Amino acid sequence: MFEEYKIIRKPIITEKGSTLKDENNQVVFEVDRHSNKPEIRKAIEKLFKVTVLAIQTQNRRGKPKRFGRFLGRRRQWKKAIVTLKEGDRVDFFEGV
Questions:
Q1: Alpha carbons 16 and 13: distance in angstroms, whole number
Q2: pLDDT tens sequence across 36-93
Q3: Considering 31, 34, 52, 64, which has the largest number of Cβ atoms within 10 A of its Cβ?
Q4: What was the pLDDT predicted at 64?
Q5: pLDDT value of residue 94
């Protein structure tokens, strides 16, 4: 059971993500950088009890940032845009 929580890190709740959810029945997650599409599909279907039709992934590079005179980088991460079957929903803020 804990394997799914290692793959699916957190939902990404933005204005663009809300638009995707309303128009295309898609949900956006931050996932483990080393996970692949079949692992992501299995984890989402098991955690949220939905049917996944398609998954699109993006590897996001960390941006360089300055900390005073020191140069650092933000962390690298992976984004998954998951298309759900018509009628399936994932609600993050139920009853709020």
A1: 8
A2: 999 999 999 999 999 999 999 999 999 999 999 999 999 999 999 999 999 999 988 7
A3: 31
A4: 96
A5: 67
Could you say which architecture CATH assigns to the domain 2-84? 2-Layer Sandwich (3.30)
Q: Which two tokens stand for residue 37?
A: 């599409």
Q: How far apart are alpha carbons 69 and 83 in whole angstroms?
A: 44
Q: Which amino acid is at 82?
A: V
CA atoms of 77 and 3, how far apart (whole Å): 18
Structural contact between residues 19 and 53, judged by C-beta atoms closer than 8 angstroms: no
Residue 94 half-sphere exposure, CB side, CA atoms within 13 Å? 3
53, two tokens: 């039709």
The pair of structure tokens assigned to 36 is: 């692949």
